[in-house]
Every structure is written in C-alpha cells, then in structure tokens.
Structure prediction request, 492 residues.
Amino acid sequence: MSLDYIRAGTTEDAIAALIRGGDDAKVVAGGTALVLMLQEGFIAPRYLVDIGRIAALGGIRDVGDAVIIGATTTLWQVMTSPLVGRRLPVLVGALGRVATVRIRSVATLGGNLAHGDPRLDPAAVLLALDASVRLAGPDGERWLGLEELFVDELTTAIGPAELVVEIRIPYPDPSSRLTYRKLVGQTMDDYGVVNVAARLDVDDGRCRDARLVLGAVAATPIRVPAAEAVLRGAGIGPAVIAQAAELAREAADPVGDLRGSAGYKCDMVVVEVRRALTELASGPGGPATPAGRWSDS
Amino acid sequence: MGCVQTYKRVHNGPRMTVHPNNRSAAPGSVSSRLDVHFELNGSPVDLTVEASDVVCDVLRDQLDLTGTKFGCRIGVCGLCTVLLDGMPASSCLLLAPMLEGRRLTTIEGLGSDGRLDPVQAAFAEEQGFQCGICTPGQILAARALLAHEPDPDEPRIRDWMTGNLCRCTGYASIVRSIRSAANRLAESGGPERSA
Ligand SMILES: Cc1cc2nc3c(=O)[nH]c(=O)nc-3n(C[C@H](O)[C@H](O)[C@H](O)COP(=O)(O)OP(=O)(O)OC[C@H]3O[C@@H](n4cnc5c(N)ncnc54)[C@H](O)[C@@H]3O)c2cc1C
Ligand code: FES
Ligand code: FES
Prediction:
C-alpha cells in the first residue's frame, strides 16, 4: 500500500482530495496526533491531505462579540495572541498546560478539536466557553457547537470529507468568572487525571448561569447539566459547591489506567470541582500557567 | 508524559539507513516520494523524501546530521528537538513533507568552526550535561527560549524546558547553564534571533 501526500492549496482543494480519497484519506494539520497514530499502526491511510498551507485556515480575528480562530492556528499562536490574552485569559492558561512547548508550537487548535481525545485541555475549556466550529465539506458549510462535535472517544461529528475551518469563541460576559484546572499525577506535561473547566456568571453574589465541564473522565469532555442547574440561581457557598461536586462525581465515568483507578479519578473529580468552584466563589478566577504568560516576541 | 501506555506499541526497531539514490521499497508500506524544499541551518535544501518519513530519520539517515538524537519517538522525551521557524519541535512527530518552505535549525546549525554558540559554551562551562544524549535538544530549546525571552528567571526556564528530559544531571546544572547563557548573550549584545 502506498501513501500519497497532497499539499492542498485551498479549502476546496482539500475537500476535493478528501472526496477522492474517501475512507483512505486523512487530514494532516500539525501532525502531532496523526503521526503517532500512523507510527503505531492505528490508522493506515493511503492519502494524507496537508492543510497547513491553506492561508484561509489561519489567523485570529476579532468579530466584536467573539474571536474567530482559523483551524490551523497553532496553540502557541493562540496563547501568545494579545487579543486572546486580553479577552480569554482562561484559554491562555489552559493552552499553557498542553504538553510541552514542542507540541504547542506545532499542534493546531482545529487538529486538537478534530482529534476527539477526551483528555484534551483546549477541548474542555472551549466547551465551557460555548465555542463552536465552522465545518466545510462537500455539502457546503455548517456550524456545530462543541457538544455536538464530540461524539465518542476519538470520534467526532466531522464528516469524512469535512474540514474544521475555524473556531468561534464568544467573549465571556464581564460577569463571568472562569477557571481551568488540570490535575496531573506524574509530570507537568502529562495528560490530566481529571480536568475541570468551570464558568460562573455572577450578579450581586448570585450565579446567573454556569458551565461545569469535566475532561479525561468520560468518552468525551462532558458538561454536567445537573450541577449547572444546582449552581444556577444560587449564592455560591460551601453547601452548593459540595452538592455540585457530588453531581459531577455521578456524571463521571472514568477508566482506570496508569494515571489512577476509576475510583481514584472519581474522588479527584469531587476534589477538583470543589477547588474550581471555591476559587470562582471568591473572585474572578484567572489563568494559571505555572510560570505566567508567554508572548510571541 | 502523554501516551505512556502506548509506549510499547511504538515501532522503534532497527531501521535501514536509506540514502537518497539508494532507496529500496520496504515491502508493505511504500509511500510515494515527493520533493521538499526548505532551509536547513541557513542553507536551502532540496530533498526527495517519502511521505511517511519523519524528520529525525531524514536528518540522521539521509543527511548524515546525527546531532539530532531520538529516544521515545512519541514526542515525549525531547531528544529529537529541532527548531522549526525558530520554535522547538519534536522532529519524531514531523513528517518530512511538512518541512516545505520552512526554516529548520539543528544542533549542527549553532556555532561555527572552532567557535561555540554562547549557549553551547555556557552548557560546557556550567556542566549542563553528562552523557550528552539530551544535550542537542536542551541547547536548541534553550536557544529558542532566549530568543523569545532574553532574561528568564528559573520558573520560566523550567516551564519552557519541561519535557526535555535528562536522566543524568538532575536539571539544576541545565537551569544554571541557561542563566549563564542569558548573561553571555546580554554581554555579547543579545541573542541572534535567526536561530
Ligand atoms: C507527547 C504528546 C503530549 C500531548 N499532551 C497533551 C496534553 O497534555 N493536553 C492536550 O490537550 N493535548 C495533548 N496532546 C495532544 C495534542 O494537543 C494534539 O495532538 C494536537 O492538538 C492535535 O493537533 P494537530 O494539529 O497536531 O493535529 P493532527 O495530528 O494533524 O490531526 C489530528 C486529527 O485531527 C484531524 N484534523 C486535523 N485538523 C483538522 C481539520 N482542520 N479538520 C478536520 N480534521 C482535522 C486529523 O485528520 C487527525 O485525525 C499531546 C500530544 C503529544 C504528541
Ligand atoms: S524522540 Fe522523544 S520526543 Fe522525539
Ligand atoms: S546528560 Fe545524560 S540524559 Fe542529559
């Protein structure tokens, strides 16, 4: 079997190549996930369609109420963008927790979302930010919220000849408090044991709206609607936080692995949700990269 | 260390040394060849590669640049670190065709005959290495750090260098080397941003 490498010049070229290649074609963006799957024999495509050179898929732009990020923008470009730093510090913090500089400099935001791994840090925080993706394919374009995008482990709603074109992230309301927590058990660059993204929109000490997202403890990053419902309308104190944390435990369905048993992970869901909400109860929250922000000078 | 559970499944067996004019079609997985043009250590390179070749193999086997090491081949250890347009990247995860139009720096691109790059000199003076297998990657990662941030403190250094694993030094002397390199570069008028 041979492997053909196609460098697509435009989105249309890429879609045409994907249609031609059918099941045997794979998109490659940064390649950090794809090359691993290729090397390990998880996938054996006959055509690789490189979208890294398509100008229309790059860039970061302000559209007033949201930022739109081109699919092939690298995680490093996103986290060092002054606009993203100003409007979405929680995203900067989460991107700073992805693996190492070597991965962040090459991996793309579109590739991260398209990969569909439940442990991915950007995926969880973007779910809490109500982000959506624009897809382009043989039947035209459509927008999809991340909840619809993530279907199952390594499975997304992206069609076989569809591309993620861009990611839209609405700016959080000024009343929004956001945080992202990643619990690692071994080294800082490991995948999380439990990831928690939380958002509380707070008016006069009451929570108007909430998002609680768990990563790494189910087949996809998941929202916890039951916990969100408890938080909504409540004053955020220890009792409601404890209740939300228990509801999160019930929603989690982790698999035991070298990062811990399923039981341990469930316990850590409770602890991490409690920590996240306690942090938000006491203030606006903020980005936490271990060593502060980076800028791409 | 993402992906540890899949470590054993990674193909890391003996590989044939392949030369540009002497490629035998490996049975089972032949990928079509294609040309790639990029800048390597300041000089233009035209190369014919296979679609599935990864950059660390091309460097070592095809270009005889063995300063780039490899260990895990899954992006975790940092031995294969190169600079892609000035930023650290794991060359075990880069497909060679992805280099098209890009600027690649390997350890061979630092310093010149008889003259060490200031970061190399600092590693030598501060004993930033012992066995040395991680050193090309450490030095390139440090070079990129200092190009972005000429005067990093220790937490910044440790954050940036996370995942450039070293089994020998315990990292303290690596951090010291990078601080010393920052001072050397400041004295010599700042880092060359072209690395
Ligand atoms: C050592 C290591 C450690 C890691 N640690 C972390 C971590 O701690 N946290 C974390 O969040 N992630 C981690 N990752 C995962 C990393 O973030 C992803 O591999 C990366 O974001 C994928 O982006 P890419 O551009 O490299 O995608 P690629 O590898 O190019 O593609 C990934 C998948 O998405 C598809 N695809 C890519 N772009 C598109 C598109 N625009 N439209 C449709 N399909 C597309 C590809 O066909 C492929 O199936 C780690 C990866 C490695 C190798
Ligand atoms: S060989 Fe370990 S990161 Fe590439
Ligand atoms: S010097 Fe031996 S691994 Fe770093």
Remarks:
- Residues B 129-135, 166-169 surround FE2/S2 (inorganic) cluster (ligand 3) (CB under 6 Å).
- Chain A touches chain B at residues 1-5, 7, 28, 31-32, 35-36, 38-41, 48, 50, 52-53, 76, 96, 99-103, 105-106, 186-191, 257-258, 289-292, 294-297 (CB under 8 Å).
- Residues 286-290 of chain A have pLDDT under 50 and may be disordered.
- The radius of gyration of chain A is 19 Å.
